[in-house]
Design goal:
homotetramer; seven-stranded mixed beta sheet; Aspartate Aminotransferase, domain 2; globular; Aspartate Aminotransferase, domain 1
Chain lengths: 402, 402, 402, 402
């Protein structure tokens, strides 16, 4: 391998689980002068976003847009619903539930976290026993991460709803769909979700900078009982503004709104059902390749059960330091950036060097997925990492069979 | 005047007091793929922003960057320093002090607001008497809006510092420089400001979406005494992160950072002292024209005293409904968007139709200012609004004399 | 005047007579990946351009698009119509007729040039005498520059047509509308023009790189008699292609076509009649200012007679070296780039330093024109150049009166 | 296969042999206002392009830039060197030699074409016999297509030079490097090429619209003897301009020059030798896959001999109508556009439906190539086209072995 050669000149492919690949139409829409923020097209455009956002989340209820990242949207959802001293239940599969629980603490709430590790979805028996024990309904909300970006676990939200209903527990069901919205099937109203948290830089295909909180009447009623909600996070004026600046609690995020408009146009042109199907097909192709590689050598799927895997991100285990070595090879030699392992640190692998992740969310298609998988095949070959044969053809067949 | 003719085809000039005109270099820098958010150029670029932001605010202390607008930065500054039940003093000249005071209430604090109206800067005697009466130092901070975007009043921050020092009052001095940073002279450290709040869409020439809070050791000490700070607003990890994502309390605002880098490069290429001088010269030209027009007919400067006027925005009074008529003419016929009157509503003029504002902040030069003033002259002429003669030549002379 | 101050930071305004200001919509449309050049959207888009180009030139006849500049389009028009040894008549008012005549020589033709200098339009008596003397009709074409970009003279094409008709002279009437198309009224079919030459970087608002030749049946008949036409310049396959690549005699100018589509959309949204009216109004405002300045001091209109002036460009005389000094001041201090004097060199002023030109073609509106004029007023003042008073107000009144 | 599903949402990959993929840096550089064309940065930038263009073509001699496509550059090269009635020799392997020969006819020259078909490179014995028979040296030039984009044949230019030298034939050696420059090794001076023709939209990675003619002193001497050269094509003032506009024979192609500057920066950052090596490695990977597929079923390399294949384009035979079916599948289902068969029409296959081509020129890297090959594998599988197994792994190994 000649050290002074590189195959990395050419288009970079950022195949990490967010931020995702931004479509040209979105970047074009953002390359424009600032608009007037008091009258004209921006007002009309902003109003047009709301029903289209609701369609993506499959809800007829409210949406508040925040200039923030997903963590800000987490805090916004909590700031409107959880008062100081109140308790929330956090069934944690993967890393991000822990982060959301910490946001609760930052606001003076009391998170009750059940840790299901980094490879399995929720154990509903354990959740049920905690809810049953909560006779006085001190648990005001259940924080449910739909897809955990670190582990690639997808949790079963409808089953959690059914559990709450069966137990007649009145806690709000709050779903974090940051990694799943616009990728994995999600039906806010049909699934009985009360609050949905999302952000723009994954399935919504817009540069990072917008958070979204969808909420229904039950959640709004809880907000109405709050002793106080900070002005910036208060979702009431944002969802039902009297004057335009209240949409954003101040100056509008002008260019992101133009980008979001372009992205929603693309989403609705394709159709959300077709988008879910596309993600499912691409995920099956990726799994076919990864499972084939895993038949020999160190590669292993982080989530064994296909039913518990997200269609938007795939976490893989390969042993330290190979994960990092492989990522570096892909980046340096092939123009392909894979995601780092996240939240998988152990004493033996403090930097999660034994893991890597594939993002396949949003603006992604068959040739991109084959480029990503072909890059990994090349790296496995170049680095002499043992691996099962026929992975790429298996992926091609999986796509061909759709 | 032929109704089916328009002179508005051509470049639109958005001459409102924020968002300001975005330079091409900033928009170009933002038109790019999403970067990796865990390694590589983005990390290096982000680190490079901090000293350059400090140079603009003239401070050696800390800066926290928020994905938010200016209102978010207001809340961030308060969330780190004002605990529930604590009192702040708000000397209010113009509209925005009232908004900041409301943010205090939203966080459970207690604002003491002294209202100096919409045309005058602070009366230091009245401020002094309140501070003197505060023997137990229950006032924990003074919220000082440097430039009020609605009224175009510029307040004297160094004099307020001197007053606090003379009275040996320990309250934090917090300055809102959203409209002034990068336009009007501001020296955080030399002027003894403890906390400075800013945003990116005015003098910093970046599309709306970033807020900044600068804070010194005294402010940091107050934060250390806080019973609790919400995770999103906590400035400590943002200003001194251990891992990259802490800079932004989650996902980085990738494209805005590229835009900000380009804007700071322009700022430092020109030099902040020269930028202040440029804004001062352009403001003098604008005042020369406006004061000339005001010699006859209804036009009037909102702020009579030149020493109390911002170099970045000019508020004008012309009587309802002429203000709105004039703005509409400029927009429809000339491609020129002027700012609406803000916060000037009275019973007779509930929509502030008797006012308009000129933005001259950030990416602005002599030919732009002459285009704006020439547009107003055209509108005054077309609408038969009486006005003093020779305004444009007065402006040209003022620029020529610099 | 402090030497270390500058007012040039801010938007640059390129007020030269071509290339003109490119609209954002055009630049956005060009910022995209290369398309397939054998199938799909590009083919459809290209076909859509032809009727829209014809509408701009007011013709029902043919159009050939060339990847070239205006000089290339000159050569293309000649290569299809003028055989070796044939004669053309060139009534020259301004510089560019001389250039076109040289293209004739380069192709082996024989230009008969009548020079009317740089300040006056054609003298029809002199043209008539040459045509009348041409009893054998050796003159195969008359090359008529509609608007000369150097002198800002606009020639009377319909009167030339009438002369040819009155004399029953069969020469082709070929018009150079490079500087006038989309600015000054031009009616190819109604005026009896046989061949029209244009380019994209002036009234058509697209970055330089496309030339256009419109031709009618009479011109096509002349082409059919040509012994040979070079493959690249041959307009027949371009105007009536059997396969797509023949439109462009090879690879299509992909990005320019997307830009041109956006520009034609803007043109037809506004309407060509309104575009002509807009240019006429803006020109009257510019003349009002310039004629006022000229009442005192050295400034002088190059073309005294308003009827002979283009609505797209204005040439001014001010004496060497003041022209260059003034241009430099505007560029360095105000962000305003004015056009140099072109083709006006004399022994005393070999570099045309005593001249400058204003471009007001294409994407231009009232506030831009006032910025340009206000900049000149500032320069006149700063450089102590004597000039008449009230010029800017005269311009404002002229625009207001439309 | 569900007819209403699509995997084509996502980044489109245009894998045709030109126009090639435009780098973001080039598009960014072109998204800017028009510059002054008489002074300032554009002049400096243009001058900077010349040595860098020469470095790409490996020559110390002259370069003329044309606003044109490659066909225009063909005509330019001929217009400067071949007078009416003169003869040129055209050894034709593939389609494009025929096109260039037609350009000769269009200029009145006399092409002597030897047709070597569409699958083989030149037969030097046949060429030698023609040259030997030309005792009076009526052949003034040999037109040598280096890489034929239709057939993917790469011809041996140094061997042709040697033949001319051995026979002491004084004809100019003119090379068409439109498809090879910046991809396949080409050494103008070392190989003794007198005139090199190129264009910007392939290895140079700029949107179509610029042609280049490089020429040495021998070619310049021939030009000096020409009775006449048309003004637009005359390379003398372009290569050695006295005033700026002569570089482009009129208005400069402003935005393309900014794009070309960015592309040349990328080329020289990587280094031309490394670029050649990158293309060679990627080509080997592509051949490894294609040759493996070809082991079973209808796919066949158009050029059997690896030494005669270009590193920039690969032509494949698969039988009508499968070629078109396969291309359509890739485009519709995978977001991958492959090149059509060109110039391969037969009676049985009038539209070349039995062929397709892969472009791998310019801004291309390992993950892109794997995406292209993976897409083809998917199509072969979906369409039940028999093909050899293990093609993608063979490609991966070929890249890994570099």
């Amino acid at each position: 391998m000649s050290s002074n050669l590189s195959l990395a000149q050419g288009r970079e492919y950022l195949a990490i689980p967010g931020p995702s690949v931004i479509p040209d139409a979105v970047l074009q829409a953002m390359h424009r002068p600032s608009p007037n923020i008091y009258a004209g097209e921006l007002i009309k455009l902003t109003v047009s976003l709301l029903p289209d956002l609701r369609r993506v989340a499959r809800t007829k209820h409210n949406v508040a847009i925040y200039i923030s990242n997903g963590h800000g949207a987490w805090e916004a959802a909590l700031a409107n619903t959880i008062a100081e001293g109140e308790t929330v239940l956090v069934p944690a599969s993967g890393l991000f539930s822990h982060g959301w629980a910490q946001m609760v603490q930052g606001l003076g709430g009391n998170p009750h976290l059940i840790d299901f590790g980094r490879r399995d979805s929720w154990d509903f028996d354990r959740i049920a026993s905690v809810l049953q024990a909560d006779r006085n309904h001190r648990i005001k909300a259940v924080l449910a991460v739909h897809v955990d970006t670190s582990s690639s676990i997808r949790n079963n939200i409808p089953a959690l709803r059914k559990l709450l209903d069966d137990l007649e527990h009145p806690a709000l069901l709050m779903a974090d769909c940051i990694a799943s919205l616009g990728c994995d099937r999600f039906e806010m109203d049909d699934w009985g979700v009360d609050v949905t948290v999302a952000a723009c830089q994954k399935g919504l295909m817009v540069p990072a900078g917008l958070g979204f909180v969808f909420f229904n009447d039950k959640a709004a009623a809880k907000r109405a009982q709050m002793p106080r909600v900070s002005r910036y996070w208060d979702w009431s004026p944002r969802a039902n503004p009297e004057v335009f600046y209240q949409f954003f609690g101040g100056t509008a995020p002008t260019h992101h709104l133009f980008g979001l408009r372009a992205a929603l146009d693309m989403i609705h042109d394709e159709g959300i059902e077709k988008i879910w199907a596309r993600h499912a097909t691409l995920a099956r192709a990726i799994w076919a390749a990864c499972e084939t590689w895993a038949q020999e050598g160190p590669l292993e799927m982080n989530v064994a059960n296909r039913d518990m895997r997200s269609n938007a991100v795939t976490s893989l285990r390969i042993g330290a330091p190979i994960g990092t070595t492989l990522r570096n090879y892909c980046q340096t030699h092939l123009g392909l950036t894979l995601g780092i392992g996240l939240g998988m640190a152990t004493e033996d692998d403090p930097n999660s060097d034994g893991f890597f992740r594939l993002g396949h969310m949003g603006h992604v298609n068959g040739q991109m997925v084959m480029g990503m998988l072909g890059g990994i095949e090349t790296a496995l070959s170049a680095l002499d990492i043992p691996h099962g044969a026929g992975a790429l053809e298996a992926a091609a067949r999986a796509m061909a069979e759709r």
